[in-house]
Structures are given as C-alpha cells and as structure tokens.
Amino acid sequence: xxxxxxxxxxxxxxxxxxxxxxxxxxxxxxxxxxxxxxxxxxxxxxxxxxxxxxxxxxxxxxxxxxxxxxxxxxxxxxxxxxxxxxxxxxxxxxx
Length: 95
Prior knowledge:
The chain is an all-alpha fold. It has a domain at about 25-80. Helix content is about 60%, strand content about 0%. The protein has 4 helices and no strands. Helix 2 runs antiparallel to helix 3 (about 50-60) and helix 2 packs across helix 4. It is globular and about 40 Å long. It starts with 12 loop residues before the first helix and ends in a 15-residue tail after the last helix.
C-alpha cells in the first residue's frame, strides 16, 4: 500500500514569497536573475511550496530563459561582480 505524500511547508516560504512576487513584478535585473537562480536551486525537488515553484517557472518563461541559460547568466554575474553588494554579501543560503 502506497503512502500518501504530504506537502511540506518550507521554513523560508514567507520571505521567499515576497522575493518571488518582486521577480514577477520587476523583471530580469542582474539582482533578480541571481535571485531566480538561487531560489530555483532551493526549491528544486522540494516536496511543497508548489505556488513558489510554479511562479519561479513562470518568471523563467516570462524572461525567455531555460535553466541552463539562467544558470550561465548567474555564474557570469557572480564571477564579474558582487551581485549582493550592500545586501549582506556573505549570503550563502542556497538550501
């Protein structure tokens, strides 16, 4: 007998929801590209937060990007500049 999977509540859902709303409203700035890439990594495979996952997919589509192109842009941004300068540049909350 298969067990029913229950969606989990992500502990950062509330703050991430605000970021996702900003991504959808503002479009692809350097900072927003980095945030989209970071959040896609955070929520990839997460068993819950379906609304955030759907909106991250929506932003990716609206910006005419694939995961590969988004990640390439994010790597380039991080290599060339401090994307989070002035926003707590020691930001390492990828999980």
